[in-house]
């Protein structure tokens, strides 16, 4: 998005053109509507979505609101190191689950291991 700006040199005259304005407008729209996190309600069930790509793992902890709509409580992501990049897809998912659970201890401390396994089993085959 900012790559044209990063290539500026002192001796080059900068002209603000359409190729600069469009990404700038996109960023303004994105920043004007940030993702909203909601506080956890203890009486409601939590759901953890996990995802992996070649270089990253990510997860999102959600809970349904009064209208039955899932709302994000917490987002997590991290870049994999050189060794983790070589993991198989299922190993990356397990790493993501472990990473998420250790980072979200405060949110998950009232859940038993059996309850978490039940949620894990509902995840469709990878």
Overall description:
The longest helix has 15 residues, at 18-32. This protein has a 3-stranded antiparallel β-sheet with strand order 1-2-3. It is an alpha+beta fold and 126 residues long. Helix content is 37%, strand content 20%. The chain starts with a helix and ends in a 5-residue tail after the last helix. The model is unreliable at 121-126 (pLDDT under 50).
Outline:
The chain is built from five helices and three strands, in the order ααβββααα. The protein has helices spanning 3-6, 18-32, 89-103, 105-108, 113-121, and strands spanning 47-52, 56-64, 70-79.
Keyphrases for this structure?
126 residues, flat, alpha+beta, single chain, 5 helices
Element layout with pairings:
Elements: H1 3-6, H2 18-32, E1 47-52, E2 56-64, E3 70-79, H3 89-103, H4 105-108, H5 113-121
Antiparallel strand pairs: 1-2, 2-3
| Number of distinct beta strands | 3
Oligomer: single chain
The portion of residues forming beta strands comes to 15-25%
Label the structural class: alpha+beta
Distance between the termini: 32 Å
């Amino acid at each position: 998005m900012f790559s044209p700006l990063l290539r500026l040199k002192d001796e080059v005259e900068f002209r603000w053109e359409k190729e600069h304005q469009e990404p700038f407008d996109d960023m303004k729209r994105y920043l004007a509507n940030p993702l909203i996190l909601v506080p956890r309600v203890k009486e409601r069930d939590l759901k953890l979505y996990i995802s992996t790509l070649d270089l990253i793992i990510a997860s999102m902890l959600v809970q349904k609101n009064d209208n039955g709509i899932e709302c994000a409580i917490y987002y997590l992501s991290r870049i994999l190191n050189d060794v983790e990049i070589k993991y198989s897809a299922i190993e990356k998912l397990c790493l993501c689950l472990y990473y998420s659970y250790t980072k979200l201890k405060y949110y998950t401390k009232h859940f038993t291991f059996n309850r978490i396994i039940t949620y894990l089993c509902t995840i469709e085959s990878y």
